[in-house]
Amino acid sequence: MRLGAHLPLADFGDGSPTAADLCSYTAVARELGFRTVAANDHLVWQHPWLDGPTALAAVASAAGGMTLATTVTLPVLRHPVVVAKTLTTLAALVEGPVIGGLGPGSSAADYAAVGVPFEERWHRFDEALPLVRALVRGERPPQLAPLPEPPPQIWFGSWGSDRRFAALAATADGWFASAYNATPDQFAAARARLDGHLRAAGRDPATFPDAVATMWVYVTDRRSEAEEILTRVLAPTLRRDPSQLADLPVGSPEHCAEALSRYADAGAREVLLWPVRGGARQLERCAALIS
């Protein structure tokens, strides 16, 4: 199982990072052998939040040949043509691959901020994803030159409903699952259902990639510190009971190693780690757990 790293865009107590902070964090991830650097997307949130695509552009030089990924970005709110242009520009500027993970988003506040009805998100998204994919490949106007080769991959983010898998299995290039919305067992079951939809669409599941995104992580030798992260930071932010977050790698090194190994055993091909605090030091501790 490969490791990737989310950019720490949200302020959970360390303060909002500077461009230099993000570049240093990305350089550490690259040196540790992390394969991907990713950025989630919100316009407004409970905590201060940096813009995801802008932050990815800021770390492009530090990423070297790493994959840059949006996990996910919101074509319904940003407009499909704007998202396609962002992705093709990133792909033209960076050394490594670019993955445009797309989703409708789950925050009504983001939709309210731009005046788009939240109840229309899935209908609009189902139209947006194939359009973005066609645009980055130059398959329909407008032509967003320069079009890099290879083009950005277009993945979809889903919690695993059959309706979404059936609608998108024939269109997307990969799948982003969500760590705090899918336990390892739930991930394995969802991936098996996705494989069935891929076969029905005439595609080989073995060549269809996936990654588990938004894997909040905090390795600590102090139980009280782990409890603080779970009960005072993540649980209220995610509006979950702390017991629902027990599968996340938050806690002792032994617990975190076991949590990550369970996702590997479930068949996850990559996990994207997001240190709640501590940034690069947490990446180093995670890399040591599975070395």
Question: How would you sum up this structure, described in words?
Answer:
- The protein is of the alpha/beta class and 291 residues long.
- The protein has an eight-stranded parallel beta barrel, surrounded by seven helices.
- It is built from twelve helices and nine strands.
- 44% of the residues lie in helices and 17% in strands.
- It is globular, with a radius of gyration of 18 Å.
Short structural description:
The protein has 291 residues and is of the alpha/beta class. The protein has helices spanning 19-31, 52-58, 60-63, 75-78, 80-93, 108-114, 121-136, 162-168, 184-200, 223-238, 253-265, 279-289; strands at residues 2-6, 36-39, 67-73, 98-102, 153-157, 174-178, 210-219, 250-251, 270-275. It has one domain (2-215): Luciferase-like domain (TIM Barrel, Alpha-Beta Barrel), CATH 3.20.20.30.
List keywords for this structure.
12 helices; 9 strands; alpha/beta; globular; 291 residues; TIM Barrel
Which second-level CATH architecture applies? Alpha-Beta Barrel
Give the uncertain stretches in residue-range form.
none
* Span of the ends, CA to CA: 11 Å
Silhouette? globular
Listing every helix as H and every strand as E from the N terminus to the C terminus, the arrangement reads EHEHHEHHEHHEHEHEHEHEH
Count of individual domains: 1
Compute the number of strand runs: 9
Amount of helix: 40-55%
Derived structural class: alpha/beta
